[in-house]
Amino acid sequence: MKDKNRRQNKGTAATGVARAQRPRPASAPRKADKAASKTGAQQAPSRRPAPGEVRGEARNRAPASGARAPAAVESQRRLIVRTGEVPAERVPLILETAGTDDYRLIDSGAGEKLEQYGPYRIVRPEAQALWPRSLPTHVWDKADAIFTGDTDEDGMGRWRFPGAALGETWPMRLLDTDFYGRFTAFRHVGVFPEQLAHWSWMKARVEAADRPLKVLNLFGYTGVASLVAARAGAEVTHVDASKKAIGWARENQALGRGEKLPIRWICEDAMKFILREERRGSRYDIILADPPKFGRGPNGEVWQLFDNLPLMLDVCREILAPAEAALVLTAYSIRASFYSIHELVRETMRGRGGLVESGELVIREGGIDGRTPGRALSTSLFSRWTSA
Ligand SMILES: C[S@@+](CC[C@H](N)C(=O)[O-])C[C@H]1O[C@@H](n2cnc3c(N)ncnc32)[C@H](O)[C@@H]1O
Questions:
Q1: Packing angle between helix 338-348 and helix 305-319, nearest 10 degrees?
Q2: Measured distance between the N- and C-terminal CA atoms of the chain, rounded to whole angstroms
Q3: Which residues of 307-329 are buried (b: 16+ CB within 10 A; e: fewer)?
Q4: Nearest-atom index, ligand 1, CA of 272
Q5: Ligand 1 atom with least separation from CA of 217
Q6: Within 6 Å (CB) of ligand 1, which residues are found?
Q7: Residues 316-374: pLDDT tens digits?
Q8: Among 59, 175, 221, 243, which residue has the most ligand 1 atoms within 8 Å of its CB, making it the best to mutate?
Q9: How remote is the CA of residue 119 from the centroid of ligand 1, in Å?
Q10: Structure confidence by residue, pLDDT tens digits, 4-47
């Protein structure tokens, strides 16, 4: 292969496995998975959490500058520049989440948002809300919980409860799936409701299939997407680097009495996992990937979206089923246009036909009653490929 046809992953040692040597037989040993699926209990933390930090939770903080991923992860596989026609495209596509019984965006403005999560009204910083609030101060003042502190997306802060002190968790239900809302150290509440747009799309796809689809949920966090997919009839593989997040996902599974659902919970670095799946020749019908800008695997592997996303998508391409497959990528908190990931996905999927649709995930304000549509709050960029 000529050099121009093969870009190396940034910083990669030139020891990539040539394509012709892959994949290893599907029967290759699966020891690592077996170990990891025990929720990673035996895996030592790679660093001591800072005071008050929930280690590995949600959107991990940026690594110190100059941090490198262990060579073992990066050097195994070169990025392949694909040839063939790019898939058809549909842009922009704005996927909107409106309110449901258990979630709605009530109002936003002046750098904050007011949301309803189950029984609680919650105020959190929201850098995108440049406009003024719509609702009067006394409505905002009735919030049950307010996150204050660092206004960075991943900033540390603390929860303040103006009325009675609240417990750490509370039950919620979205798309017929039970899970816990929870007050976490980085302002997050255990679910990213803008993802509902992807999840209902995926649910419909799984339900329409005439066999159990195989769904891979990368960076799966508290597992709501995995539970939605499994309840709809899919066989799910859920991967997240945070032992704590996997624990929360299992608690969510237990809450909905879903212990028998076919879900493999795997505590592992997402890149390492898919590289192994590629070598084994594994295939998935739907891959969901919602990577943070920076993250760490359980053994300190560094994930940097701008460095690692092209290779991650390229490997995902290899482990997608040959027909009727779909890849859903979301990106947030990055300085990029949806066109950045749109064109990357189209390049990655060259020669596989189908359609790439990209745009933004937004949540529409619903007012106090949930029935008064207001402004659209942008939360993330996405790109979705579906085979022809
Ligand atoms: C924003 S959350 C994903 C949210 C999820 N899509 C949802 O809506 O429920 C990002 C997740 O990536 C995980 N993560 C960070 N770095 C990782 C890595 N290298 N490998 C696997 N997971 C990682 C974090 O633990 C966190 O749970």
A1: 40
A2: 28
A3: bbbbbbbbbbbbbbeeeebbbbb
A4: 20
A5: 6
A6: 56, 58-60, 192, 195, 219, 221-222, 224-225, 239-242, 245, 269-270, 290, 292, 295-297, 301, 303
A7: 999 999 999 999 999 998 889 999 999 999 999 999 999 999 999 999 999 999 999 99
A8: 221
A9: 26
A10: 332 333 332 222 222 323 323 323 333 333 333 333 322 222 22
Q: In order of start, what are the domains of the chain with their CATH numbers?
A: 28-41+54-59+69-95+188-386 (3.40.50.150), 102-166 (2.60.40.1180)
Please state, in angstroms and rounded to a whole number, the distance separating the CA atoms of residues 98 and 120. 18
Residue 83's closest CA among 387, 347, 356?
347
How far, in Å, from the CA of 256 to the mean position of ligand 1? 22
In angstroms, rounded to a whole number, what is the distance separating the alpha carbons of residues 122 and 113? 8
